[in-house]
Amino acid sequence: MFALKGTRIDEQRRIEKMWIWYHRLVLFCIVCGLCFSPQFTRVSSTLHTDNGHIYSNAGRTLNQDGGGNHQIHCSRERSRAAWKIIQEYLMPFVEKEKYHISGSCKIHPDNDIYRDQEQHKFHIDINEWQCGYCKKSFYEEKHLDQHFDNRHSSLLNLSQSQCLADVCGALHCDLEMNSGSKKSKCNPPAAARNKHLCESLADSCFPVNEGPAASRLHEFFLHQFCDAHSCTGSGKPFSRGRRKKTNVFYIFASIFLVILLLLYYLYIYLYQRGMKRETQMLKRISQTSRKKKPS
Question: Where are the beta strands (DSSP E) in 105-233?
Fold first, then answer.
């Protein structure tokens, strides 16, 4: 009986140790999940709208001071929104067609005056943005943008590059930047101007006489962007979809759940194995005690 009691105590201690290590492992997985989960930040910006629509020339003005230095007033936020729309709603289809956009097209990367600066912008951490030119760090993206304007404005190619914000009206930048706000009342004259700008982009960027790929992309551009410039509500922006993204957070969460399930089944297996051993031990002790009794 004393052997049986000692066996139960040892088994109980072993199960308690197993639970302690199991909880530690789960806690470690949770901490790893918090450390490696994707960090999403959203930078607020001031928007200039006209009844929910943007005119084609509302993005930029170019002044010249007495010293001969150019002072460009091109909305960096609107240019960034336009570039994001191009990358997500247009370029996947252009790449699928293996079509090369001409440099004369306004949405060509070389025609974005801020493209080089944006490529020298590094998001190191949730509260750290680094300048690729001088390696200086900032807490917020807007401070890095101000740093570019103050310290590296001389690197802007004002002779060839254009303000990408100029095409915001055609690309529905307001919809991208004001995704959570209430939709404003449609302005028919502004919608007509934006549609004209949109169609001119389709003609210049994807001329139908340049082959089947250009013709297909021309038709796609009209449906993806231009048809929605109407107050009748007949078309919706980005109706042909966007670039599919792999959500890193959901991938990590799935892996984490699989690990938890494996640990749970491992614990059940070890627990049942321990109970089986304890039952066998009890049978042996019982048989031994019976043999020792006098007949």
Answer: 121-125, 128-131, 137-138
Which amino acid, 70?
H
Whether the CB-CB separation of 108 and 102 falls below 8 Å is answered with: yes
Q: How many CB atoms lie within 10 A of CB 233?
A: 8
Three-state SS at 131: strand
Distance CA 267, CA 26 (A): 12
pTM of the model: 0.61
CB 122, CB 35: distance < 8 Å: no
User: Residue 28's closest CA among 17, 16, 36, 40?
Assistant: 36
What is the mean pLDDT of each successive set of 10 residues along the chain, which is 295 residues long? 52 64 62 50 34 39 45 87 94 94 91 92 94 95 94 81 90 85 80 95 96 96 94 82 63 78 78 74 69 56
CA distances from 160 to 57, 107, 109, 112 (A): 17, 13, 12, 9
Cβ distance 54 to 82 under 8 Å?
no
Give the other-Cβ count within 10 Å of 271's Cβ: 13
Q: CA-CA distance, 180 to 238, in Å (whole number)? A: 17
Of 162, 161, 136, the C-alpha closest to 148 is: 136
What does the alpha-carbon distance between residue 123 and residue 38 come to, in Å, rounded to a whole number?
12
- What is the chain's alpha carbon radius of gyration, rounded to the nearest angstrom? 32
Helix (H, G, I), strand (E, B) or coil at 53: strand
Length of the chain as a residue count: 295
List phi, psi (to 5°) of 56.
Answer: -65, -25
With tokens 């201690």, the residue in question is 13
Query: Letter for the amino acid at 105?
Result: C
Give the whole-angstrom CA distance, residue 192 versus residue 33.
49
Q: Which of 238, 275, 277 is nearest to 85 (CA)?
A: 238
Q: Retrieve residue 11's tokens.
A: 């088994």
CA angle, 125 then 128 then 134, to 5°: 125
